[in-house]
Amino acid sequence: MLSRKANKDSHGQDSSYFEGWQEYEKNPYHPIQNPTGIIQMGLAENQLSFDLLEYWLRRNSNTMALLKKDGVSAFRELALFQDYHGLPALKDALVKFMTRMRGNKTKYTSDKLVLTAGATAANEILMFCLADPGHAFILPTPYYPGFDRDLKWRTGVEIVPMHCSSSNGFRITREALEEAYQLGQELNLNIKGVLVTNPSNPLGTTMTKTELIHLLDFAIDKNIHIVSDEIYSATVFDSSSPTTTPFISIMEVVKERNNNNLNNIRERVHMVYSLSKDLGVPGFRVGMIYSNNEMVVAAATKMSSFALVSSQTQFLLSNLLSDAKFTEKYMEENQRRLKRRKEMLVRGLRNAGIGCLRSNAGLFCWVDMRHLMRSDSFEAEKELWKRILCEVGLNISAGSSCHCSQPGWFRICFANISEDTLQLAMQRMKAFTNSIFSSANHIIYNM
Amino acid sequence: MLSRKANKDSHGQDSSYFEGWQEYEKNPYHPIQNPTGIIQMGLAENQLSFDLLEYWLRRNSNTMALLKKDGVSAFRELALFQDYHGLPALKDALVKFMTRMRGNKTKYTSDKLVLTAGATAANEILMFCLADPGHAFILPTPYYPGFDRDLKWRTGVEIVPMHCSSSNGFRITREALEEAYQLGQELNLNIKGVLVTNPSNPLGTTMTKTELIHLLDFAIDKNIHIVSDEIYSATVFDSSSPTTTPFISIMEVVKERNNNNLNNIRERVHMVYSLSKDLGVPGFRVGMIYSNNEMVVAAATKMSSFALVSSQTQFLLSNLLSDAKFTEKYMEENQRRLKRRKEMLVRGLRNAGIGCLRSNAGLFCWVDMRHLMRSDSFEAEKELWKRILCEVGLNISAGSSCHCSQPGWFRICFANISEDTLQLAMQRMKAFTNSIFSSANHIIYNM
Ligand SMILES: Cc1ncc(COP(=O)(O)O)c(C=O)c1O
Ligand SMILES: Cc1ncc(COP(=O)(O)O)c(C=O)c1O
User: Fold this and answer.
1) N or C: fewer beta carbons within 10 Å in chain A?
2) Domain residues for A374?
3) In this predicted model, what pLDDT tens digit does every residue of B244-292 receive, in sequence order?
4) Which of A294, A324, A354 lies at the terminal end of a domain, its last residue?
5) Can you give the CATH number for the domain in which A186 is found?
6) pTM of this prediction?
7) Count of CB atoms situated within 10 Å of the CB of B324
8) What is the CATH number of the domain that holds A388?
9) Which spans of this chain does the record mark as coiled coil (chains A, B) (predicted)?
């Protein structure tokens, strides 16, 4: 009696990504009440800087409580405000914030911005705008597991994976792009674009200029779209050292090429953003699409009727973000804290004999545990993941849930727990690897 | 380069419904700054009781500003809260509120409720769950113009209009249902259900028990779904007089039939609700689906990821709605005010020689202006509508924009303007009809 979509499982809830979460729910770690419980390291949440937001909230409580604007109640106005063009003050604050976060190299303007209830809705709306059912987007693997639901489920769009490998640090190459395109053609799919996440979830890395140019050239050649999900753009905590790449938005690269708007590429580049990660407020559901394409902006604006941001929340965040001094400080401090945490995780893992992909952004590390597996297979990965979940008591994400094509990689989140809990997690890992390394029958085939 | 959906016009923005709104934007009435401007009577907004909400907000400002729960900050918890099951406190308050609003005749439980960003998202999600592209729903006309966008655009679902007529007060009959079903079959459409709005927008009437039973029997016979959009359920301002029908929810009728759950009808009845009208807070985007069907609840919950309600707003409204004494008073007073307004509009129109369909709910009247038209046609309706917009200076909605099959009916809203403005609008109408009635060449063919 129900629709195929309602009956279908492509929302991804049953992947191991969710399985671990369920185990955690049954036995969650607590320092006093449940010290042997499972530690949640599978959530890409940013809990490091709530004290700063709370401080701002306390200082602005009167405005926020009574929804005051210039001293008078804005309650009526806000209660009624459901214009899908969004609160001008919020859009203005957002484009300024985005411009600042991208080093003032590209100027963002609010007429190209569409507000949506989270990046989740933004990504789906873009698919509805750019592709018809049966059309496809190329996604570099490993990718955010939520995309299987967000991009495909209700839109009928297909994902063609583009396999990245550890051999070059999971970088995007022109060859891999061509291969994916080829695969799509063999499957008789009309490839409408490439969707990337920059900085990457789950890699925690920013895309290099070279990667971005490969991507752009590819999209110019094939006459297809680029969607860049830049939800982690303000988490870049390391961009100055010579070995790390600073964050470069797709919008910056396309602007450089804009003098010769080859094959109208400018109108085929779209960005997704959200405050869920950078500000740590996923509960507030503030996301957006940014596009140079007027028709996409127009269609997405109309579609945003299905995913409008609460005007109360628009009001709160327009006040907060337009406090430029506060946001500047917040971002600086937040990045400092993220960096400290990430280094703590990397050290702890190294101490347990485990390496990570070198990263400079995000709320997680991409961790190499190939040497801890019984064999080079996804079965072994799953087995190791289950042991880490049940024996070690850590809920982390297996690479396979991110469609990684090489077994043995895991995503570990570091910003959703306390430092003490992180240290405990690392002790547990060390004890675990010690027991493995000392066990005679374990074959270390890849160290 | 874009999708068919992005290129398509089925979002309905270009109907006359929106045209009038644009004219209004150019020349909006203001008592001092623009006393000859257009008066907006095309918006189904409830602005009558903001003072009560503001009063509550002032008394609870400390809790709301600092997002306090039991005296401690709930900010962190809320900032992170994006569970698509919704805030238990809000769902609990909502089901109690809904139970009370429906005279405690049916008990609503929160496990059957799915929160969505407005009824707009709720209606679309239900279509995604119940129908595949190319399937159809029957809708009694006249209906809310937004449905053309909400039900059809992204889902690919079709609407089969079921024509109601003034001859029986636009009531739903078994014959009309069968006729629509027949039409669907002739068009080779797989009819998946009937969607009704009760109380009706644009009629302002509640469905009678007889209509509800016809509807239910029809759905049992044809083995199809019923969706009841009850977004105006707490606006019912007249339910006691012998000539008016009290509001009866579809859930109540189905419960009575439940002893013999004929053809599993219980699992095919779904309700949509929202706080946009009853509480007058469309900007806050709080809607919901209520269904007896576990699979629909499960699928809709997952789909609600694309349309989650801000946790900050969930918190505000859970506090407000769980104040039972306040909501009780609010609803009583709000209904009293709506009734007063409606009577003011009916009197004003009668004074101008214009009649209305007898109504007892909603934020509008369904107005009969057939006698003011040059001919019994939609061209004449459009002509009259344009004159009222441009000469009289009132933006009202033409019946054709609600897919009414009889020309000459208009929806006039009464709760989005002040009493003074309403009186002025009626004076303008009277002057207009006077000029028509006294003009020799006007043929009054239907008085
Ligand atoms: C790459 C990416 N895109 C989108 C999302 C969804 O974000 P939002 O909370 O804004 O919907 C996430 C959340 O984990 C993500 O990692
Ligand atoms: C019958 C009906 N359904 C749904 C809606 C949309 O309501 P919401 O603001 O909750 O999305 C409206 C608004 O006018 C309506 O009249």
Assistant:
1) C
2) 4-48+327-440
3) 678 999 999 998 876 677 779 999 999 999 999 999 999 999 999 999 9
4) A324
5) 3.40.640.10
6) 0.96
7) 12
8) 3.90.1150.10
9) none
Query: What is the DSSP code (8-state) at residue A196?
Result: E
Could you tell me the two tokens for A213?
């140019």
Q: How far is A85 from chain B (nearest CA, A)?
A: 12
| Contact between chains at A308 and B118 (C-beta distance less than 8 A) | yes
* DSSP H or E segment with residue A395: strand A394-395
Q: Residues A55-77, buried b or exposed e (16+ Cβ, 10 A)?
A: ebbeebbebbbbbbbeeeebbbb
Residue A13, chain B, CB below 8 Å: the answer is yes
Token digits of residue B443: 């043929």
State yes or no: is B289 an active-site residue: no
Domain count of chain A?
Answer: 2
For residues B274 and A312, give the distance between their C-alpha atoms in angstroms, rounded to a whole number: 16
The band of B17, judged by pLDDT with boundaries at 50, 70 and 90, is: low
Distances (CA, A) of B220 to A56, B224, B252, B261, B263: 57, 7, 16, 9, 6
**Per-residue pLDDT, B14:** 52
CA of A275 to the centre of ligand 1 (A): 9
Last residue of a domain, one of B299, B324, B349: B324
Nearest to A324 by CA among A109, A95, A35: A95
Q: Are both A346 and A417 inside the same structural domain?
A: yes
Cα–Cα distance for residue pair B214/A119, rounded to 1 Å: 44
CA–CA gap between residue A147 and residue A157 (Å, rounded): 11
Closest to A124 in 3D by CA, of A266, A17, A10 = A10
Q: Which residues pair with A364 in a beta bridge?
A: A413
φ, ψ dihedrals at A227, nearest 5°: -115, 125
Q: Which of B108, B144, B290, B330 is catalytic?
A: B144
Strand partners, A190: A135
Mutate to test the pocket of ligand 2, among B231, B233, B279, B413 (most ligand atoms within 8 A of CB): B231
Query: How much is the pLDDT for A446?
Result: 44
Residue A79 near residue B277, CB atoms below 8 Å: no
On chain B, the residues whose CB falls within 8 A of the CB of A128 are 3, 5-6, 154
Q: Is residue A102 part of a domain?
A: yes
Strands (E), A360-437: 364-368, 394-395, 397-398, 409-413
Going by alpha carbons, the residue nearest to atom 13 of ligand 2 is B44
B112 is catalytic: no
Active site residues of A: 144, 229, 231, 277
Q: Which of A120, A197, A203 maximizes ligand 1 atoms within 8 Å of its Cβ, making it the mutation to test the pocket?
A: A120
Q: How are beta strands B269-274 and B287-291 bridged, if at all?
A: antiparallel
Q: Residues A253, A382: one domain?
A: no
